[in-house]
DNA sequence: GGTGTGACCAGCT
DNA sequence: AAGCTGGCCACAC
């Protein structure tokens, strides 16, 4: 009623940015977790696509805090250099080994649960 | 205006 | 057991 989409944005895109930007320091989340939080687990790919826009856009999105379900830095190659993503994660106190987050379950931040 | 792709996830064979 | 395909939505040509 009335307004209808009061969830602002009106696009999956903006919703993803909002959640990613809310990720606390030293925490990581997964694409599927964000997609599921938005109500569409199948749209996990869109989350990654949104990240791609964050690099071309003007928004400050900590995309390095977003990894795949395995805790693997899938999109590290999209940061311009494959070492940037891991460097940023280690900079926040997160240990990364072989492109994989160590203690992923300990640093995992679930938007649907924390929010 | 239609087609293809994209940093995923999960289910089926 | 592993590999592949489908599904989701949005953007680019």
What's the structural blueprint in terms of helices and strands?
Layout: H1 12-21, E1 29-30, H2 31-38, H3 44-56, E2 66-67, H4 82-91, E3 96-97, E4 100-101, H5 104-107, H6 111-114
Helix pairs in contact: 1-3, 2-3
The protein binds a DNA duplex (13 and 13 nucleotides) through residues 11-13, 30-32, 35-36, 40-53, 63, 66-69, 73-78.
Structure in words:
- The protein has about 120 residues and is mostly helical.
- It has six helices and four strands, in the order αβααβαββαα.
- A two-stranded parallel sheet has the order 1-2. It has a two-stranded antiparallel ribbon with strand order 3-4.
- Helix 1 (about 10-20) crosses helix 3 and helix 2 (about 30-40) packs across helix 3.
- It starts with 11 loop residues before the first helix and ends with a helix.
- Mean pLDDT is about 85; it is low at about 1-5.
- It binds a DNA duplex (13 and 13 nucleotides) through helix 2, helix 3 and strand 2.
